[in-house]
Amino acid sequence: MDLRVALQNKVNLIDAALDKYLPSEKSAQNIIFDAMRYSVFAGGKRLRPILMLAASEFIGGNAKDVLPFACAVEMIHTYSLIHDDLPAMDNDDYRRGKLTNHKIYGEGMGILAGDGLLNYAFELMLKATLEKNENLQKKVLAMHEIAKASGVRGMIGGQVVDLMSENKQIDEETLDFIHNNKTAALIIAPIRVGAILAEANEEELIALTEFAKNIGLSFQIMDDILDIIGDEKKLGKKVGSDIENQKSTYPSIHGLDASIKKVNELFDKSVQALAPFGEKSTFFIQLSDYLVKREY
């Protein structure tokens, strides 16, 4: 099957599930539901839930069994973007070609929409676990993976150091910490969770984790590159914000050519991690090629 068709099929499945899971009832606080839905359905690529579904299928699991967890990860990712766009953080007016959440609903409601999505993600996973409680330990382990990856030792930790590093010259070690936690952690976790829920063996989990680490870092380096030479219309957001905010990035430390070379090296490592699995890894390899070689 063509990669784009396969991706669109997964996006359709995830979007239908998100529409089903996200609250929409009319009540005193219905504005928060509108704000949450606004950003969730603002045109995301659904990369993280797609990776979770793909990891489950790689092991031989059923995509429907991991959908609540996949949707939860997308909610957590969306909450992080809402908060990232706030004036106190990156102060962005557009995301994916649309006005950011706080530009539509105000800063206070933007904060609450992010909070609502984070909390609702765990409510959704817990509900799915309680309703169908076989493999309980694996589901609890999956939730722990997601909590850790999105918390102070993962995404939030990376955001903290990123915020503290603005207007400063930082070294490569600090930049790697930011990228590996702020971005890569929430790419690694969905892949591991999909594998865990599908009952992967140790060899499979190690290989998928190695693949995920390389893809997660290369994805963020490519974002750094696109912020310099990307097309605003294709990206759906302003380019040059890293320079404007005086952020250290791979290109600013190593230069553009070296950064592109690093992306290609990480891609090669990701392919090597799954090489022992042969044709079974075809979708992941095609997806990684699509992600790390996005159009400039």
Tell me what the structure shows:
The chain has 296 residues and is mainly alpha-helical. It has a single domain (3-292), classed as Farnesyl Diphosphate Synthase. Helices cover 73% and strands 1% of the residues. The protein has 15 helices and 2 strands. The chain has helices at 3-21, 30-40, 47-59, 63-84, 101-105, 107-131, 136-150, 155-164, 172-197, 202-229, 232-235, 241-244, 250-254, 256-274, 282-292, and strands spanning 94-95, 98-99. Strands 1-2 form a two-stranded antiparallel ribbon. Helix 3 runs antiparallel to helix 4 (63-84) and helix 3 crosses helix 9 (172-197). The chain starts with a helix and ends with a helix. It catalyses: isopentenyl diphosphate + (2E)-geranyl diphosphate = (2E,6E)-farnesyl diphosphate + diphosphate.
Tell me the layout of helices and strands.
Elements: H1 3-21, H2 30-40, H3 47-59, H4 63-84, E1 94-95, E2 98-99, H5 101-105, H6 107-131, H7 136-150, H8 155-164, H9 172-197, H10 202-229, H11 232-235, H12 241-244, H13 250-254, H14 256-274, H15 282-292
Antiparallel strand pairs: 1-2
Based on the model shown, name its key terms:
15 helices, 296 residues, metal-binding, isoprene biosynthesis, mainly alpha, (2E,6E)-farnesyl diphosphate synthase activity, Polyprenyl_synt, transferase, single chain
Main sheet: strand order: 1-2
* Number of beta-strand segments: 2
* Mean pLDDT across all amino acids: 90
The CATH homologous superfamily corresponds to Farnesyl Diphosphate Synthase
Order of helices and strands: HHHHEEHHHHHHHHHHH
CATH architecture: Orthogonal Bundle
| Count of domain modules | 1
> How large a portion of the residues is in β-strands, by DSSP E?
under 5%
Could you tell me how far the N terminus lies from the C terminus, measured between alpha carbons in angstroms? 26 Å
Oligomer: single chain
Task: Return the CATH class.
Answer: Mainly Alpha
Overall, the morphology is globular
Counting DSSP H or I runs of 4 or more residues, the number of helices is 15
**Annotated CATH topology:** Farnesyl Diphosphate Synthase
GO cellular component, one term: cytoplasm
Keywords: Isoprene biosynthesis, Magnesium, Metal-binding, Transferase
Protein name: Farnesyl diphosphate synthase
Cofactor: Mg(2+)
